[in-house]
TrEMBL record:
It comes from the Bacteria. Keywords: Signal, Transport. Belongs to the bacterial solute-binding protein 3 family. This is Glutamate ABC transporter substrate-binding protein. Residues 1-27 form the signal peptide. Residues 70-294 form the Solute-binding protein family 3/N-terminal domain. InterPro entries: Bact_solute-bind_prot3, Solute-binding_3/MltF_N.
Amino acid sequence: MPHRHFTRLRRALVAFLALALTALALAGCGRPGSPPVKGPKGSELPQYQVAKDFSLPDSPTWVRAKKRGHLIIGVKEDQPYLGERDPASGLYSGFDIEIARMASAALGFPPDTIEFKTIASANRETALQNGQIDLYVGTYTINDKRKKLVGFAGPYYMAGQSLLVRADETDIKGPGDLAGRRVCSAAGSTPYQRMQTEYPKAVLVAYDTYSVCVDNLLTYQVDAVTTDDAILLGYAAKVPDELKVVGKPFSQEPYGIGVPHGDDALRLALDDALAADEANGNWQKAYDATLGLSGVPAPKPPPIDRYPAS
Ligand code: GLU
């Protein structure tokens, strides 16, 4: 009897391990970025020149990555045209993924060696602080509160908070119309915090990701989703008959590349890289082939903020 019990236990353990391994494989860590299945052709994406004999000895993050042989970059996997992971191939694509590839090339690591890790909004600072990732590129707003915990290169794009509603919604036209309505956003995000402090009459619902919010919107569990316009336009573009973005953006969300706090050598090297890729046309080309597909022509990138070390 005890033996049989043990066997059953072992079988359960094996089954559990197999399941866990499948889940890990599905999580697809370590796959390089690539164009989405229905998105741009590879030929339309920029080819980033890998910096030769590049060295950044003053950056502990770079030195660690050099020893490892590649960069580990935190991204999103459910934000159309920004950071999207194809579940079949495990490949990542989108504007943020292109910024990550650009950064990798500039630091001397071929972009196709990047190990991407999906990290939710609420976990970005911790992931950079505990060395789980070297960089983070995923609709990451630069602000003073976060600058106490991490560093930011950039900004490389300026977004603004907006609202996504069902196509047949007529009452919600701006954040002032949300009193008593259920509004969904991602935990740990700036749009969530802004709703909490500036629109307390809205009934705020939080999930880890915006795609879960969008599912809740489509199934009438919530009345609106709020986050950056760049993210919402992507969801709307995927199902234009069912969803629409309403009103004007009501915040400024400058996107930066997150780096570990205090690694100023890395931060400033990435500022230089962004400036170079904006000047040589790569930034525009990357935008046109990714985020541009959600319908907004390429804006002028915001000025880079090389802020002093803190
Ligand atoms: N840009 C905002 C933020 O960093 C919202 C998007 C996101 O959650 O990634 O919080």
